[in-house]
Specification:
The chain is an all-alpha fold. It is 67% helix and 0% strand. Helix 1 (8-15) runs parallel beside helix 3 (34-53). The chain is globular.
């Protein structure tokens, strides 16, 4: 798997504004790819910024 594909379910939760589970957090923590975690963090940040802009 490459980049974000191995965390597709987590990406979908982020896009829909759902909370991540404890297990999701463990998977992210155990990931050996910091770039992948960074992409998810950026995605979450962008989602938060959109929420603030539309309030």
């Amino acid at each position: 798997m490459n980049d974000i594909d191995s965390f597709q379910d987590i990406c979908e939760k982020v896009e829909w504004g759902e909370r991540l589970s404890f297990e999701d957090g463990v998977r992210l923590y155990q990931s050996n790819d910091p770039a992948q975690r960074g992409q998810l963090a950026e995605m979450m940040s962008c989602c938060k910024i959109r929420e603030i802009e539309y309030c």
